[in-house]
Design goal:
Blueprint: H1 2-38, H2 40-71, H3 82-127, H4 129-137, H5 141-162, H6 167-221, H7 229-265, H8 270-280, H9 291-305, H10 309-335, H11 344-358, H12 360-385, H13 387-400
Helix pairs in contact: 2-3, 2-6, 7-8, 7-10, 7-12, 9-10, 11-12, 12-13
């Protein structure tokens, strides 16, 4: 009986230690999430720079390989090996600057022209009463009556404000303070934007230079044994590569397809709107948010060309449908593959959670972060909770080999 009681005590103490361990892990995760939420605005430039450095890292590695090959020359052997990574980083930054410059030279004039055309269309739309009546005719009669009642209430409020005793004081404050605050806020926003851009460039440069060292440190920080650590790191790298590098290429292709489709049809802001949809395509299902903008641009296009609005809606729906089918059936399977085959419910949940935690960066990183968390959890369950399954699988593999 005493031996049994001792074994029971040991088992109870072991269970207590396991419970305390899980409680500690849970508290650490909660504290990390709270810290990330508190520092999300500060971490946003760093995360953005890390994504840029990770996406272009294969280019840096390739240029570094070529540089090391050139440094084997007898006259260049005195140059430190560290300089190869520095040269590769500088060359990659110059290449990125050249790509951005070429993009601006190609698209900026057309974008400015489209903005000018869109401004003239809006001005014509607001000054032409026939257009306004045609737009109102698109809405149900109840909606039109509600809008008329709302505008009548606004006119009544304006007439009541005209007899206000503090009208002069309000007008003076309204003229002085908004102007001063507008200048200050505009200057501050410009300065903060420039500072953020400078920080992103600096972060990107240093991360590109130290990426091999960072990857080695990450391998040491993973709390798994030597057999399972390479599998987890390989899977994590594959997930990151499949999403950020491949999905950025998919977003660029889809944006170009939308820009060509809307630009050829002559939609106002067609090229800009198409590239904007491509940018939204970095986050799954987020391109749905562009449909109200497409509806508004369809109204402008209908009244500019005289094409019936229902036909314009059919054209827009056909463009969305065809490009979505091409993306799902050809582009994504060929470029991204099926590595991140998450159910739609989990995708929406991960977007909501990571978006709340890290803002826009969380929206972009939601899918790979969720896949990485699932992979880590699966590895932990397989190696720590059910280690016998791992041993049996290794024995089966050894027997087969």
């Amino acid at each position: 009986m005493e031996k049994k009681s001792d074994s029971e005590k040991k088992e109870a103490s072991l269970n207590t230690k396991i419970k305390l361990k899980y409680i500690t892990i849970f508290l650490i995760v909660v504290c990390l999430c709270a810290l990330l939420y508190y520092l999300r605005n500060v971490l946003a430039p760093f995360v953005g720079a890390f994504l840029i450095a990770y996406i272009v890292n294969p280019v840096v590695d390739k240029i570094e390989e070529w540089t090391r090959f050139l440094l084997r020359h007898p006259k260049l052997r005195s140059i430190p090996k560290r300089s190869a990574r520095i040269v590769a980083t500088i060359a990659t930054l110059c290449l990125m600057a050249a790509v951005v410059t070429i993009f601006c030279l190609i698209f900026i004039p057309q974008i400015c022209e489209e903005f000018s055309r869109f401004g003239s269309l809006v001005k014509k739309f607001m000054s032409d009463s026939v257009w306004i009546q045609q737009v109102l005719a698109l809405f149900p009669s109840d909606w039109r009556n509600s809008m008329h009642n709302f505008t009548g209430q606004l006119q009544l409020l304006e007439s009541l404000q005209d007899i206000n005793f503090w009208e002069t004081v309000q007008s003076m404050i309204g003229k002085l303070l908004p102007g001063a605050m507008g200048v200050l806020s505009g200057t501050a926003s410009v300065v903060l934007t420039l500072v953020s851009i400078v920080f992103i460039i600096m972060y990107t440069t240093f991360l590109m230079m130290d990426m091999p060292k960072i990857r080695r440190k990450i391998r040491l920080l993973v709390p798994l044994d030597d057999l399972s650590k390479p599998d987890l790191l390989r899977k994590t790298n594959r997930l990151m590569k499949a999403y950020f590098r491949s999905q950025s290429l998919v977003a660029m292709i889809v944006g170009i397809l939308y820009a060509i489709a809307f630009g050829v049809l002559g939609f106002p802001m067609g090229v800009v709107f198409g590239l904007f949809i491509g940018l939204l395509n970095m986050v799954p299902y987020l391109q749905v948010a562009s449909m109200p903008i497409a509806f508004f641009l369809g109204i402008m296009y209908s009244f500019d060309t005289g094409i019936p609005f229902w036909q314009v809606l059919l054209i827009i729906a056909a463009i969305y449908l065809v490009i979505q089918v091409v993306e799902d059936m050809f582009i994504i399977p060929k470029i991204v593959g099926t590595e991140m085959n998450l159910p739609p419910v989990l995708i929406l949940l991960s977007i909501s959670v990571w978006g709340k935690l890290l803002g826009f960066i969380g929206l972009v990183c939601a899918i790979p972060f969720t896949c990485i968390v699932i992979a880590i959890f699966q590895e932990y369950v397989e190696h720590r909770i059910f280690p016998r399954r791992r041993d049996k699988s290794w024995e089966e593999q050894n027997e087969k080999t």
